[in-house]
Design a protein that fits this description.
The chain has 330 residues and is α/β, with parallel strands linked by helices. It has 3 domains: 44 residues, 434 Repressor (Amino-terminal Domain) (Orthogonal Bundle), CATH 1.10.260; 97 residues, 3-Layer(aba) Sandwich (Rossmann fold); 136 residues, Response regulator (Rossmann fold), CATH 3.40.50. It is 43% helix and 17% strand. The chain has 14 helices and 12 strands. It has a 7-stranded mixed sheet, sandwiched between helices. It has a 5-stranded parallel sheet with strand order 2-1-3-4-5.
Length: 330
Amino acid sequence: MRDVAAEAGVAPMTVSYTYTRPDRVAEGTRARVLAAAGRLGYLGPDPVARSLRSGSTGSLGVVLGEHLSYAFEDPQASRFLSGVSHVCVENKFGLVLIPAIGAPDDADRVREAAVDGFVMWTTVDGDPVLDAVAATGRPAAIQGGPAVEGIISVSPDDRAAARSIASYALETASSPLILSFPLAKDRVGGFTRGPSTRVDYPVTRARLEGFRDALTQAGHEWADVPVAVVPRNGRAEGAWAVREAIERVRPDVVIAMSDQLAVGARDTLGENARVTGWDDSQDAESGGFASIRQSMYEQGIACAQIAAGLRASVARPQWSLTKRSSSRPF
């Protein structure tokens, strides 16, 4: 930097401002500094050294408990990341995606991440990545939980929402099939009945509890309720799980944990199959089935604002039931 300053005939601080605060340098002076830097092969202040001096990297880390492709393929994950990105753009933060898929070095990757704060996607209870994030002491928020000291949870009341939509479905149906997210970290799919609600994923747990509440109130024995479990949220997985289930049961409604799964159920059962979904996406609107409305975009914004240190807490996200009855029982 001193060599560039001498070449351009300016003070070293002017060279620094040319790169870090260009609005404080006259246009002609900045051009002269950049020309001198070009002649000398100077590329500007080292960003790593600058972050060490300032104590800030200017980036947020998003920890995904999924393969990175999930962030772009899953509609709700995509909306969530759009909200995170909005905060980054508005506040000139970079965005670092950090996959955490159960590998032995997941926690190390988190600890070594050069970011100012963390946004986390729902993971399982006891995930070592949770402790790794909390141990950094940096601001952190997680969508959907689990709740861990040092990490702010941004989670709607999924149990109440699940109870609401299941009760609505049971107003005109008596033989439900539940289409569930994975029950454990190993993500084994298949058919079961009345599974324990003490499952690894807090979102799955809360929704199963809500479904159980509604079914029990309607006179069903939870131990007898058929549940088709998918290894991963997706339309194809929903279709597969329902194909497995209908070899054993003949439901008059499928209560799914996502709109993608609900559409997958119809792929197997036919477009007139009665289903309910979750997220109230375009799929639910065009398919005419009931769904829980929540804004993953707003939750992404809230998580990013916490991770960026812009706020310390948020109100619990709201949900609502969108009722539709255009589909017929099958």
